[in-house]
Each structure stands twice: as C-alpha cells, then as structure tokens.
Amino acid sequence: xxxxxxxxxxTQEERERIRLKRLxxxxxxxxxxxxxxxxxxxxxxxxxxPAATAASTSSSPAASSPRKASPEKPxxxxxxxxxxxxxxxPSTPKQPALTFEKWQNEALSRILLVSLNESAPxxxxxxxxxxxELKDENExxxxxxxxLDRVLVERMSIDPNDEANAYFLDRGQLKYSLFDYLLDCWxxxxxxxxxxxxxKTLPENVIQERVQSLTDSKSLLVSYAGLVLQMPDMFxxxxxxxxxxxxxxxxxxxxxxxxxxxxxxxxxxxxxxxxQEDELENIIQPLVTGITARARAATIxxxxxxxxxxxLALLVIPAIAAVVPNVATWNxxxxxxxxxxxxSALGPFFKTSGFCADDPSVAELFGTGLKRNKxxxxxxxxxxxxxxxxxxxxxxxVVNSIIRAGSDPKEKMLNYFYSVLAKNERRAKxxxxxxxxxxxxxxxxxxxxxxxxxDPFMDSNHSKVDKISSTYFKGASKIDISKETRxxxxxxxxxxxxxxxxxxxxxxxSDLFFLTLGFHHxxxxxxxxxxxxxxxxxxxxREQYDRLKEQESAGTLSPENDLLIKRYxxxxxxxxxxxxSLESQxxxxxILSHSFQFYNLVMVWLLRMVDPAHAYPRQPIKFxxxxxxxxxxxxxxxxxxxxxxxxFLFVLRHSPETVGxxxxxxxxxxxxxxxxxxxxxKNPYLKAKLAEILFYMTLPYRGQRNDDTLGIKLNTHPVAxxxxxxxxxxxxxxxxxxxxxxxxxxxFNIRYNISQILKFVWKNPIHRDMVRAxxxxxxxxxxxxxxxxxxxxxxxDEGLTKLSEIHNIExxxxxxxxxxxxxxxxxxxxxxxxRTSQRQASSYIALGNETINMLSYLTEVIKEPFLTAEIxxxxxxxxxxxxxxxxxxxxSTLKVKNPEEYRFQPRILLSDIIAIxxxxxxxxxxxxxxxxxxxxxxxxxxxxxxxxxxxNLKSVDEIVKLKNLVLKVEDVRQQGAxxxxxxxxxxxEFLGNTIKSHLLSDTTDPFNRMPLKIGDVIDNxxxxxxxQAWKMFQRAKKHQRAVEPMExx
Length: 1049
Hints:
Blueprint: H1 12-34, H2 100-112, E1 114-115, E2 125-126, H3 128-136, H4 145-156, H5 166-170, H6 178-197, H7 204-230, H8 246-254, H9 265-275, H10 280-296, H11 305-315, H12 318-323, H13 337-343, H14 347-351, H15 378-403, H16 407-423, H17 440-454, H18 491-498, H19 508-522, H20 524-554, H21 559-586, H22 589-610, H23 631-634, H24 639-654, H25 657-660, H26 665-676, H27 684-697, H28 718-734, H29 743-761, H30 765-775, H31 778-814, H32 816-821, H33 824-861, H34 872-887, H35 906-919, H36 923-931, H37 938-950, H38 956-983, H39 995-1001, H40 1021-1043
C-alpha cells in the first residue's frame, strides 16, 4: 500500500488510479461481508444487497448499477452481533411504526448527517446529485445498505474548498476533516446501536435485524476511516494547518478516550479487525512514529504519561500489538547503542529516566549546596522513585502486550533486547566513552521490566529452576561471550564448547533469565562498581577541600588556593547532585529486593549445575564435590559470579535491611560451596569477595546491637557449620599467591576479613571443634600458622614504624616558630608524608591487631602446631620484639595525637601478646624464648608485669604465671650458655634454615621454582646423623678435658 508521504511525487492520474484500486478492494471486502445477509422482519423480506462500484471524486459521482454479491464464502462481520439485553420488566412487544427501510433511512441519516430529502433540516446535507441518480434509476430516495457506499462517496466527494459548495459550508460539516467526520459518524452509530439493542417494546427479531444493519454499516465507516488515514488526499478535504491522515489519529490518541477529542478503544479495535489482513502496519507505523516523537521530548518532569497512554491505547488491542514490531523503526540495525534509545520505536519510552546524567533537569529536584544530605533530599527520592516505579509498570504493560500478541511479535521483542545488549557490551568495561553507549536510565528500565517477567519463576522454592537451560552458551548462543573470561575453563575448552555448529533450542524462561543476567551485568552491576569508584573520588576531593578550608580559617591560604577552593566547591556541588540522583535509583529498596530475588535464583541455578545429582535445592548438596566441575559450568562467563558478589557487597554495605529478613540460605550455601571447593572458581579475587560478603554479614546493622547481625546465620546454618572453618582457613593460605603484582598487599585485606569472620564465630563450640579438627591436618595447618606469623611480624613492624613517623612530624609541627620558618614547599612535603603515614598506620595496625588477637584465642585451645621446629623460634622472636616496643624505651616514640584514629590500643595489644605467652607455657616454647638473644629480656617481662597489674589488664594468677614463665626461661638460658660453651664454634655446613621453613611460605622449589609440597621433601638423614655425631664428639672432648689432671710446674 502506497504511503501517503510518497504521494506528493505522483501525478494526479496516478493518484486517482491508486484511489480507485483501493476503493475496489474496499468494496470487494464490503460486498463479501454483505453476503451474510441480514435477518428479516415480519414486514420485510431478505434481498441480495448490491455493492456499488468505485465512484469518482467529483462532486457529482456516477452511480453504478446494482450487482449480485459474490457467491464466495462469506466473511464474518467486522464486529459480532451483540445479544440484546433482557428487558428489565415484562412488556408486550409491538410491531414497529416504521418499516425496516424507513427506519434504516432515518437512522443512517442521523448517523451520517446527510439526506436524500431536499427539505432536510440542518445540519443534514442534501445529496442532490445522488438523489437525482436514484430517481433516474427508479430507486426509492432512502439511504440503505444498498446505497450506503454511494452515499458515503457522495458525501466525501464534496470539495469544501470549492466556492460553488457554499451552501454545504453553511451547514458546518465540511469544516472538519473526513477522518473526524467518519469518527463522529462511528460514535453516533454506536449510540444508535446501543439504544436499539436496549429497546423494550420491539420484537426480538426486529431488534436483531436493526442491530445487524448498523453493524454492517459500521464496517464501511471503519473501512473508509482507515483509507483516509492512509491516503488523506483520496477525497477533497478542507485546507488546514493541521496535518491530515495519521497525525489526526495521533493527536486523538494523546487525548482521553472518553472526551470528544479522544478516540474510543472499540474504534481502534474495529480498525484492527478490518485491516488485520490488509496492511494494518501501514496505518500503525505513522501512529507509532508520532507517539514516539512525543515520548522523545518528554522527561519525568514534563508530560511523560501522555505518550505512554497513547501507546498503550494501541497495544491493548492484540492485532495492533502484533504489528507494532513490524514498523520500520522497531529495531534499526544500523543504529548505534546511543541512537537506539532515540530512534527505535520503544527507545524513548525506555529512556525516560530519573538519572540526572541522562536528564539534567532532574538535578533541580535535589537543590544546591555542599551541606545537602539524604534527609534534605527525602522528598526528591520519594518523588523520583514513585515516578520511575510507575514507568516500570507501564513499560511492563507495553512489552507484555507485544509478547502476548503472538510468537512472531514475542520473538521480535526478545531480539530487540538482545540487540540492545549486544550493542552495549562496552558498558561493562572499566573505562568507557559514555557517548558511545546507551544511558543508565535506558538500561536500568529494561532490566527492571525483564525482572518483572522473571517474577513467575522467581518463587521462593525455585520450582522452575530446572526450566533454565544449562547449555545456553553451547554453540551459537544469542549472547556472544567469546571475549569473556570463563569461570574455570581453558581457552581451548571454551572455544570447542561454543564452536559447535548447532545452536541449542532455548525456551522463553531461559531467554528471560539470560537477558536479565546480561542487562544486570551492563546495568546495575556496573553502576554498583562505578558508585564505589565515584565515592572514592568524591571523598578525596572533599578531603582536599576541607584541608584548604582549614588553611583559610588559619589565615595560611595562598592566593592561588583561594581560586582552587571555589573550583572545588563547584565540582563538589555537581558531584553531590550526581550522587543523590544515583542513590535515588540504585538504592531503591524495591529494586534492590527484586534483584535479591533474581540473584537468589541465579545462585540456585549455579549450585544445581555443580551438584553431581543436579537435585539442589530439592536435596542438599553432598560434599566433597568432584575434582572438576562440568563443562557446562566451567565455560560460563566469570561475570555471572562477579555480578552476584558485587550485588551482595553493595547491599550489605548500603542497605543490609534489604536482605535482613531472609534466611540467606542460597547465599550461605553458595559462598561455602565455592570457597571450600578448590578449582571451581579460578580467580582468587572473586573468592576473596565471597569472604568479604561473609565479613559484612558479621557487622551489626546501623545503630543496632552488636549481636543483631546477619552473621548469626553462620552459627546456625548446617552448611556453614560444616564448611565455614575449613573454607576460610584454606583460603587464608591460598591467597598468599594470587598471581597479581599487588598480591603481597592484597592478601592483608583478604586475611583481615577472614580474621573477623573467625573471631565472630569463635564462641560457637561447633566452629571451635572444627578448628581443632583442622589443626590435626599438620601440614596445612602449620602453613596457616606460619603465614599468620609472617603477617603479624610484617604488619606490627610497619604499623609501629608509621606511628613513629607520625610522632616525629607532630613534634616538628608543634614547634610553631621552627615550623613557620620552613619554606611552604617543605611544609607541604611533610604534610603529605604525614597524611600517607596516617593512612598506612591505620591500615597496618588494624590488621596487626587482628592477627595478634587471632593468635591469642587460637593458642588457647591449640598448641602443637605453634610449637613445631619451623614455627616456635620465629613466634618467640616476634613476640619478644613487639613486647620490647610496647613496654621499652621505644614506646615514647609511639605517642601520637588521637591514637584511636589509627586503632592503636597498646593496652589491648599488650594483653593479647601476654595471653599468647601464657597459652604456650611449655618446654618447647620456653626453650625458644631462651634462644632469642636479640629481644628477650627478663627485665622487659617484669616491667610488663607491673603495667599489667597497674592497669588491671590481667588477673593476679596470670601475672604470677608470667613471672614463673620468666624464671623457667632464665633457667634454660643458663643451661644453654653452658651447652654453647661445651659445643664451641658450629661448622658452617650445619647452619641454615631447612627447606621446610621455605615451603611454609612458598610452595615452590627454591632451586627450580616448580611446585613442591612439604610431604614431598625427603629428610637428610645423613646430615642429621653427622650433626649428632659432632655434638657427641664435642661433649666428649670437653668432658675429657675436665677430668685430665692440671699440669703443674
């Protein structure tokens, strides 16, 4: 069907030929409908209804002779005949006063506002030419089904712009467009039809005959209405600034359908039925284009509801919803990611956003000024969230209408989402040019709509998890993951798995599931990471701004920094607005709860894949799992697990109440399974985030009691009781080598989280028993103890060194005169060193405190691993060294202002160190203390005893035990001095550390760097026997000298 926009290039003759062809097509369909006939009344017999041939557009169209209807199979009427309602009260039907023909003439005259009677009153138009034609044909001057087509053509052929038709203009009708005229006729017909169907005094057969006649008449009105929408120049129309054709219907769609300027849904339904098999999309496309243009200009602060209402008015009709995905702008293949949200048919609707990055006008809702906070913006939060939630509801209705319209529109709707996802893959990268990808609001809105579609299979029992494909990425999947890092598959395995030629069949549930995964990945998951990075930048700038303001208050601000303050203020003001806008969306509790439900489903799906029985969650997972997971799991993109952990870390940091009421069964099982099972997740940093999740679970809710935490579930969940301790202790060892250049520093933060988890569950006797069980695995536990020792030594040394640096700079700055005499550059450099030392001291000391504390409670119940030859000497030396610093002369260099800012609590630290001494009070440990010639001093212990007693840090019994320990050490040292004198100088070949000591920290051969375990080391028996023989010889030689008589002169 020729589009009206292209008619301007046609000649008048071509335009006329197209018009006549359309009329012929229209009349053919109309004649087919008429072959059904109309029920006859007692006063009239049924006759074959003739159909007129196409009429000319001139003001005096030629009449065509009647012809019989085609005997082909009749077409069902456009609108089914309604059953008239039962009378409210019994009455005796009477025969109508008018015959059917006269009633039909009067009814159609009132509906069409035309007459074949010259004396018809206003606003009736007298159709003189048609009346004359009927006289010439000896036909009655009555409007009927037989003449209806000719009547309409005659009426619409009157040229309102011809001065010769001034008489008609006086009647007022021709001042309106033909579409408006036909729509008004349709409305009047519906009114007459309703009144007729409710008539209580007419026989049933009369009512049915009249209703059927009106129904058939309406079909012709609808047909012509559709044609004038497509070809507005088919008939002459009043010249107007208002565009004719589809734009007329667009404007009516924007109005309320119950108002005179609106368009009833039933009219649209009639249009869809009439043109469903006759290029309906040619009518719908300009409507969608016009509605989309209105939506493109809307924001959440302007009239965004009107275009939504107009679009839904179309989509509520399934036949129309089915053809909307056929419009040319549905999913433009050449559009970029950024263009899609503007030029695609639904793009502007999904683009309606509450993010100020997408819509700068949103910023005005949050006010200005650096002293704003969430409380000040509560009203804006409520308003934006309420509006966006409503938008999500309407978007769901839009998509749902299209998906339910049939398999083809459903497939095109899904393909649109897949296209958006593919074109926005760059959104998942750490650095991305925002002008090349779709905006946050566009992706955010699609994500929430997809989650609403997932609702039916996100039930708490996960009853439909088996419907989600486990082989979705096998072969040519709809989502390209060829560039993605896999959970644990090699490149060769991944390429072979995805390189299969046949794509796997995918059901609707799987489509929704993986689309939702993908949009979370490029959407909210990326926003969580960006928010964390943004807040880091925000606080750094805020810190610099605050420092300059302090200088301004002190009168030491330089002129150039005065300009910098103003620049910082403007920047912080914008950042504050951006922050509030972002938080209003990504911290919406309803959206977070929805994502929580979805990620629970994802975790269950992953656990079901690694469960050898594939029975989870109906049955618990049985440990241990196979050494290697299935290929279906191994080749999955790593971002699936990464997005899960990023979501839970975000929620536990910023909105723990979102998950507070849940059992967290899926999360706990998920973290336990993948922490305790080596090889299933090859990225140690992903596993570290699992441990970080458990750490945040141990923290109290904001402002609530310390025992009111999500971590309580770690003390009750059966999988946690079985797996938590071995999982975190093995992982403590595993993170020693992560493969990154930053692994040395990364491990401290990871181990801090582990220490907090262990500390939280330590009071639980079941977990303590699990620690004892782990200690029986001598090699792995000794490695754990060794690494704990290494960390403690490094952290305490670094932390206390940084405190000393802070002390020195503070002393320097307290000398006001000398400090003022320094150059600005020198002062700036020293201030920079101070800030760096402060930051590092806080980190090191916090971590050091936890490692010392862990040693204190572990040695209370476990001793043997701490007394092995590879550990005990280093442990004794480390404890002695730190004791000297805490109670010796160096303590004066650790006195700083506000020590609590660095978490430096020397009394607690001293108490924990002394507890370790007392816990390990046994011969092997005493000997190790005695061998420490560098730091051990009885006087230090006695001084520590006085501090402990004076500060009431230990009980009297504990102080007595400490003093007795010192006496034992002194006795051993005395004996050791005698033994050293006895042995004399030790040969060089007998000195040096054993390879076991090396392997406790590094599981590689020191000579070839190949993997090597302690169990693979072979004892050097020959060297041991040689050392023993040498000792015996040295002692025998000394004894011999002692018994020989002294020579005298």
